[in-house]
Amino acid sequence: MHRTQWDSPFTDVPTKEEVEAYKPALGPHCTPDRFRVDLSGVPSTVWNKSAANVFVQSFRDAYPDCTKSSKDICMAWERHFNRLRRIYRDQQEQARLAQILQQTRRRQERKSQLYLRRLHVAKLYSQQHPSAARAVEELGVPGMSSDDSDHESGEGTARYAIVSKDWRSGEVTELLRLLDALHLRLRYGNGWNATSGAWPHLRLVSYKSSTRAAVKGLPKNFYARKFLVSLTQEAFDELHLIEQILPVGIPDGLREFVVSLYFELSLN
């Protein structure tokens, strides 16, 4: 299998489709020079039995003076094969965990960029909405909705399903969506021509809900009423919410401006 170290990666591993399609009547599926075993299967599968026969014959050709029986050689191969299976499973698990870690890091980076972008826009429109920037700062990165990507492979157009935070009030979510709309206006300009820089990724509303705990210590109106009434007294106390309200409602003038942006975008 052309591996130079015990922890070298396995290459040329047969696919599930190849294994299922193989028929012994067709003869050996591999050769000593291109030795292929199904590391996801057990030694007794049709595919792996064929590979074992190839190994036994190759061993006899390489060591013609060996007095061991074919059965003994085959049993020795099966023991070695089972060790290879364990190494292969460990490698697959490590690769799976590494992918999860990479996806988590990408998701956290997107949340951080989302927070900075919204804060930037909120400060630019501070005259129209004086408390927007403070609202974003209160939420922090943990208060931003994360998203799940179907684009981790890097192929095709990136789409991200928004994972909503059920604990967050609709009023706060509306403000954040408004900041996103204003960002698009700043990003594209009056003629809806994109300025320099990376294209905004497509975040789509979904039915997915976050399982992460609510951000603690926020103004009371930042939390959804339905969420608050669902809490036990102990959980409510641990939330450490602030009774003082921070206005996050969208002024009519700003709301009308954003509506006109969406209408203008639909005509382009």
Q: Helical percent range?
A: 40-55%
Radius of gyration: 30 Å
> What distance lies between the first and last C-alpha atoms, to the nearest angstrom?
58 Å
Biggest sheet descriptor: 3 strands, mixed
Order of helices and strands: HHHHEEHEHHH
* Low-confidence blocks of residues: none
Molecular structure report:
The chain has helices spanning 16-21, 46-62, 70-124, 132-139, 170-188, 225-230, 233-239, 252-266; strands at 146-149, 159-163, 202-204. The protein is mostly helical and 268 residues long. It has a 3-stranded mixed sheet. Helix 5 (170-188) packs across helix 8 (252-266). It is elongated and about 90 Å long. The protein starts with 15 loop residues before the first helix and ends with a helix.
How would the blueprint of this fold be written?
Layout: H1 16-21, H2 46-62, H3 70-124, H4 132-139, E1 146-149, E2 159-163, H5 170-188, E3 202-204, H6 225-230, H7 233-239, H8 252-266
Parallel strand pairs: 2-3
Antiparallel strand pairs: 1-2
Helix pairs in contact: 2-3, 3-4, 3-5, 5-8
